[in-house]
UniProtKB/TrEMBL annotation:
The keyword Zinc applies. SUPFAM superfamilies: Bacterial exopeptidase dimerisation domain, Zn-dependent exopeptidases. Pfam families: Peptidase_M20 (PF01546). It comes from the Bacteria. Keywords: Hydrolase, Metal-binding, Zinc. GO terms for molecular function: hydrolase activity. This is YgeY family selenium metabolism-linked hydrolase. Its cofactor is Zn(2+). The keyword Protein biosynthesis does not apply.
Length: 381
């Protein structure tokens, strides 16, 4: 199992799989899942791969989910970012931590569980697409296909159990102006002035907090005028894009309403608020415009899934810890939208994701295989 997970992780890293270009990686996942004994391996319309193991007439007790896509390589690397180099106990390469190592460990761990004991329920592993672009969208069709009783998100967590996660709402705030020549600005209405006032007003917006998830956040990430560039002319409109990190229980209407109230109190008007729905395209050619509203979620400490994960970690000789993620994952679809019991549990450190010289510790990969094996046996025997 140890050799398998190291080799498989290296093999995955050596295939570049940017979002929307995961085709070669998906083909590898199909081959390897079949070789590891998964009885059913399918690829859905989006290109996500789903492997199932256990009795064909039984329900799916547990789905381990990971995404195949990675962010682009930037900066100067010590090792080839697509080399999968093994050096001093770590495997280097883009996607090693986020999150090809997690998928490899899930495949190896679940296969080991099936070899060790006869499963009475099915266990699934999904390798999904486009998560780096839009969380949850691709997992939706996977969940439709296998209807799992519970979900494990294999994002990096240092093998701590994540029982909660912040959500994300991507907002576009547009101010409308009146075009005029830049030499005669008094004849127009400049939306950039309103945008500047809005940024100052929203910087002081009081946001909710939660004892588990911490403080909600509102972060401006982009500002652009239309037309762009607007040469010698007051623009027709200016749009600010915000990333709003949400807490469990918050609704889209709550978030947009508080922003609107704040802007109106600051004397601003003639604006529109919208949730981003940028179009995405999968490597299979599927196109969609999913809403960038990804809800937060929480599981209670005594939830059976959380207890099972703690037991699996303990059986593996690791001190169990339960915490939460500050970032957003595919769990926004399984838990946030659908209410399917979900936890996060994966090898590697969150802070290593998306970095130059991204890497994952071999001992984390090996331990993840054992933890996933125990969790599959607890859930499916």
């Amino acid at each position: 199992m140890t050799t398998d997970v190291i080799t498989l992780t290296q093999e995955m890293i050596r295939i570049p799989s940017l979002s929307g270009k995961e085709g070669d990686m998906a083909a590898l996942m199909v081959r390897r899942m079949r070789e590891f004994g998964f009885s059913s391996v399918t690829t859905d319309r989006n290109g996500s791969v789903l492997g199932l193991i256990g009795p064909e007439d039984a329900e799916v007790a547990l789905l381990f989910d990971g995404h195949m896509d990675v962010v682009p390589v930037t900066g100067s690397w010590r090792f080839d970012p697509y080399g999968g180099t093994l050096h001093e106990g770590r495997i280097y390469g883009r996607g090693s931590t986020d999150m090809k190592g997690g998928i490899a460990a899930a495949i190896c761990g679940v296969a080991a569980a099936a070899r060790e004991r006869r499963l009475t329920r099915r266990v699934a592993v999904s390798a999904s697409v486009l998560e780096e672009v839009i969380e949850g969208y691709a997992l939706s069709s996977v969940l439709d296909a296998c209807a799992p009783a519970a979900v494990v998100i294999c994002e990096p967590s240092k093998l701590q159990v994540k029982a909660a996660q912040k959500g994300r709402l991507e907002i576009q705030l547009t101010f409308h102006g009146k075009p005029a020549h830049a030499a005669t600005p008094h004849l127009g209405v400049n939306p950039l002035h309103a945008a500047a006032r809005a940024l100052l007003a929203l910087e002081n917006l009081v946001l909710p907090s939660d004892s588990r998830l911490g403080q909600a956040l509102l972060v401006p990430t982009d500002i652009i005028s239309s037309p762009h560039p607007s040469i010698s002319m007051i623009p027709l409109s200016t749009t600010i894009r915000f990333d709003r990190r949400t807490l469990s229980g918050e609704t889209r209407e709550d978030v947009l309403g508080s922003i609107s109230t704040c802007l109106e109190a600051a004397g601003l008007k003639d604006f529109t608020l919208a949730v981003s729905e940028d179009q995405v395209e999968t490597f299979t050619g599927e196109r969609a415009s999913p809403s960038r509203w990804l809800p937060a979620w929480q599981q209670g400490a005594e939830h059976p899934l959380v207890r099972a994960a703690v037991e699996a970690v303990t059986r593996s000789g690791i001190e169990p810890r339960v915490g939460s993620w500050a970032f957003c994952t595919n769990g926004s679809e399984s838990a946030g939208r659908r209410g399917i019991p979900t936890i996060g549990l994966g090898p590697g450190a969150e802070e290593d994701a998306h970095t130059i010289d991204e890497s994952i510790a071999v001992d984390q990969l090996e331990a993840a295989c054992v933890v996933y094996k125990h969790l599959a046996l607890i859930a499916a025997t």
